[in-house]
Design brief:
Layout: H1 5-15, H2 19-22, H3 37-46, H4 51-73
Length: 74
């Protein structure tokens, strides 16, 4: 059986799937926002801490960033 592209698209909409899924293609890799690798893992761990501890860590991280921005502007 041969299907035209429009038929595949229509069938995918009816079934609630993507056309690449119907054709057996691997799903596209989703692009994550934010840092990757070790930095992402650290901040994911920090996000599980109580809010007051998170704020202390944020303050520690922001201080050198703010200082760097001030030095760059000068």
């Amino acid at each position: 059986m041969t299907l035209w592209a429009q038929q595949i698209t229509t069938l995918a909409k009816i079934l609630g799937v993507r056309t690449d899924e119907m054709l057996g293609e691997p799903p596209p890799r989703s692009r994550q926002n934010g840092p990757g690798g070790r930095t992402r893992r650290v901040f994911e761990t920090v996000s599980s801490l109580p809010r007051h501890q998170q704020q202390k860590i944020i303050d520690l991280v922001k201080a050198p960033i703010t200082q760097s921005a001030i030095c760059t502007v000068r």
